[in-house]
Amino acid sequence: MSLPPSAVAVESAARESYSQLITWLAVRADGDLVGAEDALSEAFVAALKQWPREGIPDHPNAWLLQTARRRLIDGQRRAHTRRKMEDAISHAIETAALGTEDGNDFPDERLKLLFVCAHPAIDPSARAPLMLQTVLGMEAERIAAVFLTSPTAMSQRLVRAKTKIRDARIPFRIPERTEWNERLEFVLDAVYAAYTTGRNTCDSLADEALWLARALVHLIPDEPEALGLLSLILHNQARRDARVVDGMYVPLPEQDTQLWDGPMQQEAEAMLHLASIGECPGRYQLEAAIHSVHASRANYGTTHWIAIAALYDMLVQHTPALGAAIGRSIAHGKVSGPEKGLLLLDELPASSLANHLPYWAARAHLLAEVNRLGESSLAFQKAIGLSIDPTMKEYLWKKLRELQIGMDHP
User: Fold this and answer.
1) pLDDT band at residue 340 under the 50/70/90 scheme
2) What contacts 24+ positions apart, CB below 8 Å, involve 297-300?
3) Is the pTM of this model over 0.90?
4) Residues 362 and 326: beta-carbon distance below 8 Å
5) Distance CA 287, CA 64 (A)
6) φ, ψ at 352 (rounded to 5°)
7) Contacts (Cβ under 8 Å, ≥6 apart) of 102
8) What is the mean pLDDT of residues 8-28?
């Protein structure tokens, strides 16, 4: 049964504007993210009750912001700080209302919030998760899965970080370049984490991450790692139509290159070229270079695995990310044989691997190649249990069935 128009309008506003509304409120509310979130949640509840009776307002975002403003002021009154907050919030509402009445979108200030979340006063372990929740609207459960921790622990970490922003009165602004060294790395990591989370399961999240990557390059066009990140995301996004075919996930080496977006790949190559001018290779430039080599298969028909393995050797020197180490194992498995790939996987810290899907999927494939079929079957089952993406799960089930048929009919 289809939803009524009012419910559709509320759902659309929540999906498309939630993070922008939160940022707008928090920027004008002395950084009170918790208060802004509570007030906006109450505004959405009010919309679900009132819009069916009163009709959908001409400017839904302005209505939500005005309602959230009232809730926030009520909360501040109870906390005896109404006077300090009311003028700032009122100004925000008035400015926002003027913008929507002119037919304009809300000014997108999420870039400011990214840098706020990366402030040195915030616990480093909370910075990227906080960006994903407040800037891109990811739920704590999904963030916990990305960072391999429990939802409860992640929720507590996020609450502490938001409280710190409020209590330390961290300013909502894009910092001076001299303040970027530590913050930029966390901002780039959060944008890429958002993209990889949305890549297979949520097109809107992937699109938001691509927008943020472009915004960063616009802000800092001479920063090699920002250019590298944009190149990396563009290369991935160019393969969107080839990644899932007929409901089935298709690994990069098996994708139909005819389905890749040529103009987007050209843009990715241009960004990577600009990044290389700085002669300061970093994680995202190296990852983009790896994907650039994969992209060359469209022209040459084969994948240059020796070059990819060499780039992974460099990459693991720049990042402790498990994904880099696992990719290196796969690449060396292609160059030197699956035994080499397994040897590299065995060197990884076991404490980090129990619930890491890419590890178990890679291990399952390499074990199958060395004919350790029983172990491969168990690894595939473990990977299937960890997968939350239905297309990936179906792909893994397909590989497991093929393996079991081989075991039954050697």
Assistant:
1) very high
2) 297/253, 297/257, 298/257, 298/260, 298/262, 298/265
3) no
4) yes
5) 41
6) -100, 0
7) none
8) 69
